[in-house]
């Protein structure tokens, strides 16, 4: 095993007297790829900054091997001191670094370099920051939420780029798929302490749950022992007072151990305020189109969304996800085509940029709308502090201004506001940004139980797979298609469609294959066998029957409600489609081979 090139040992840090890190540790060797995981507010970003040398701990040791280079990607990059993106990226280079790589990375990330920082979107800012830290190819790369505000093509490009690096990479991210694809070690930061798993994130959650179960069992044993000792204290201490003072002291020690035992942070309590049921039809689009500056954003798109559907919208940044979302909810009218909205719709929205939050308002004002100290949630009138606690805010934060909240806290605040509003249609625009994994789990459970309809825009592949029943995906040039199932199902269906060549191309390819096979075989004494003749006559009917079956299965799979209604049936139908298509391919190849053989024999 390679020696560590960075070591953190016994790291302590407190803010305002409250311990954040207590004896935390981190060790990184060249080429390693650990991820830091833990609840929002557990100190992941702080520990990453200490490792990067940006802040100092109250106590503990930080060692970096001499000559080792470190680059750090912050959650919220600041480009305000630079005239353009290229100068910002080049400022991250050290003497001897390759300046051409900076330009190459910007091009790969869809930036020219002359963009003014003030006009960048959140995704463009993140891309510029990634180019700045990747360009030097450092020995250690520290990434704090690298996928935030990135679209799916950029996330997949980043995964491939990071795999190609020799650098050690320390990651903090809420994106399960990203972590599972890249990490090799996992460091769990919990209650100020770190524990390490020598496997990637894919194995983490089962390992964490086992540890928590062990701790719960140990606590149960401790509680039972205290009960026994208290029974002895009540009924047996009088007769044995002098010789059993040590046992009495042991009991006090046990009680103190239980009092001092670190307590897990509470879970976010997600409850949605339901409105009355909407009509069965939520929205129906027929041939809708939208064009901006002579560029087709949406072209001839149709869909039907019914009550209870969970629809995901995916596509690159700038492809028109917000446009299609606004048309489906009646905010924007299409240029052509028709939109029909259902009856009794009550909409609650979580916007991506948290723009509806007034940065100067307090946490209390943001939740109550500035009217009193009560919040109506799920039919109950709750005090604002009680509702704050449901989302892991402390009572003393009631007067904290929004601008002072962390990204994760702002995300939880937006969720709290959206879920308090009566609704039967939830519109979620990038809801996973800045939320920790546990909160994402609870959000997924809440959406599964939500009786209304959900339309969400997300770049989180795992979240889409866990939540949605269909995916509306961008296909290019304004074309959008709806696929049944989650994101992974969409990829399978898209791949199957792309692998079906046109009839002309397929015929040419199969014919070429047949010719090559025939040329390698003897001519069978100048005539066809009875078996070959019979096959040549019967295969066309067999192919027609197989094509009919394929059409029936594809029509069933095209129903967006199929997956949500019967996931197992959908999987079985997909598997059956694959088998029938394989049979058709074999039948067509046999027929073409025999037909070419017949032609050759007749010609010769």
Offer a quick outline of the entry:
43% of the residues lie in helices and 21% in strands.
Describe the structure.
This protein has 19 helices and 20 strands. The model is unreliable at 237-243 and 502-524 (pLDDT under 50). Helix 7 (204-235) runs antiparallel to helix 8 (245-260). It has 604 residues and is an alpha/beta fold. The protein has a six-stranded mixed β-sheet with strand order 14-17-18-12-19-20, sandwiched between helices.
- Total number of β-strand segments? 20
Give the quaternary arrangement of the chains: single chain
Indicate the radius of gyration in whole angstroms. 31 Å
End-to-end distance: 70 Å
CATH topology of the largest domain: Rossmann fold
Biggest sheet record: 6 strands, mixed
CATH architecture of the largest domain: 3-Layer(aba) Sandwich
Please outline the helices and strands.
Layout (H helix, E strand, L loop, with lengths): L3 E12 L2 E12 L4 E4 L6 H9 L6 E6 L5 E4 L11 H6 L8 H10 L13 H13 L5 E5 L7 H13 L3 E5 L3 H7 L2 E6 L2 E5 L6 H32 L9 H16 L20 E12 L2 E12 L3 E5 L6 H8 L7 E6 L5 E4 L12 H6 L5 E4 L2 E4 H7 L16 H14 L4 E5 L7 H13 L3 E5 L3 H7 L2 E7 L2 E6 L2 H12 L4 H17 L10 H28 L3 H5 L1 H37 L1
Parallel strand pairs: 3-8, 5-6, 6-7, 12-18, 12-19, 14-17, 17-18
Antiparallel strand pairs: 1-2, 1-4, 8-9, 10-11, 10-13, 15-16, 19-20
């Amino acid at each position: 095993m390679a020696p560590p090139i960075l070591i953190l040992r016994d790291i302590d840090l407190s803010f305002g007297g409250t311990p954040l890190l207590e004896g935390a540790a981190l060790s990184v060797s060249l080429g390693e790829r650990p991820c830091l995981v833990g609840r929002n507010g557990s100190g992941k970003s702080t520990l990453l900054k200490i490792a990067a040398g940006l802040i100092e701990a109250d106590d503990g040791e930080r060692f970096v091997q001499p000559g080792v280079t470190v680059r750090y990607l912050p959650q919220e990059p600041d480009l305000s001191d630079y005239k353009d993106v290229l100068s910002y990226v080049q400022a991250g280079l050290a003497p001897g670094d390759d300046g051409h790589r900076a330009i190459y990375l910007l091009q790969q990330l869809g930036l020219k370099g002359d963009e003014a920082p003030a006009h960048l979107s959140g995704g463009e800012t993140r891309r510029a920051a990634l180019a700045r830290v990747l360009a030097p190819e450092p020995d250690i790369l520290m990434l704090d939420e690298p996928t935030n505000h990135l679209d799916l093509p950029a996330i997949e490009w980043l995964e491939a780029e990071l795999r190609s690096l020799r650098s050690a990479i320390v990651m903090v991210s809420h994106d399960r798929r990203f972590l599972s694809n890249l990490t090799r070690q996992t460091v769990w930061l919990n209650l100020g302490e770190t524990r390490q798993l020598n496997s990637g994130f894919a194995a983490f959650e089962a390992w964490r749950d086992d540890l928590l179960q062990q701790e719960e069992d140990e606590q149960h044993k401790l509680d039972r022992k205290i009960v026994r000792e208290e029974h002895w204290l009540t009924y047996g201490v009088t007769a044995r007072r002098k010789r059993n003072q040590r046992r009495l002291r042991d009991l006090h020690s046990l009680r103190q151990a239980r009092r001092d035992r670190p307590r897990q942070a509470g879970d976010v309590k997600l409850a949605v305020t339901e409105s009355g049921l909407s009509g069965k039809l939520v929205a129906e689009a027929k041939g809708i189109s939208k064009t901006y500056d002579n560029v087709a954003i949406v072209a001839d798109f149709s869909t039907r969304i019914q009550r209870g559907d969970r629809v995901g919208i995916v596509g690159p940044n700038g492809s028109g996800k917000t446009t299609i979302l606004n048309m489906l909810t009646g905010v924007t009218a299409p240029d052509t085509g028709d939109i029909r909205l259902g009856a009794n719709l009550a909409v609650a929205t979580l916007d991506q940029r948290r723009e509806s939050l007034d940065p100067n308002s307090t946490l209390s004002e943001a939740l109550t709308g500035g009217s009193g100290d009560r919040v109506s949630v799920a039919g109950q009138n709750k005090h604002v502090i009680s509702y704050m606690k449901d989302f892991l805010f402390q009572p003393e934060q009631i007067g904290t201004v929004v601008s002072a909240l962390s990204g994760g806290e702002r995300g939880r605040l937006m969720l709290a506001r959206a879920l308090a509003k009566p609704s039967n249609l939830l519109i979620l625009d990038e809801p996973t940004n800045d939320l920790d994994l546990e909160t994402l789990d609870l959000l997924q459970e809440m959406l599964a139980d939500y009786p209304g309809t959900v339309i969400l825009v997300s770049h989180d592949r795992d979240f889409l797979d866990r939540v949605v029943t269909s995916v509306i995906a961008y296909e290019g040039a304004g074309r959008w298609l709806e696929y049944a199932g989650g994101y992974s199902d969409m990829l399978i269906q898209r791949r199957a469609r792309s692998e079906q060549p046109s009839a002309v191309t397929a015929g040419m390819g199969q014919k070429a294959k047949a010719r090559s096979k025939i040329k390698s075989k003897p001519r069978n004494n100048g005539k066809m066998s009875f078996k070959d003749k019979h096959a040549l006559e019967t295969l066309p009917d067999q192919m027609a029957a197989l094509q009919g079956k394929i059409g029936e299965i594809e029509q069933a799979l095209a129903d967006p409600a199929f997956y949500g209604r019967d996931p197992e049936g959908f999987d079985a139908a997909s598997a059956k489609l694959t088998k029938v298509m394989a049979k058709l391919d074999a039948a067509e190849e046999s027929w073409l081979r025999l037909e070419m053989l017949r032609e050759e024999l007749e010609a010769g």
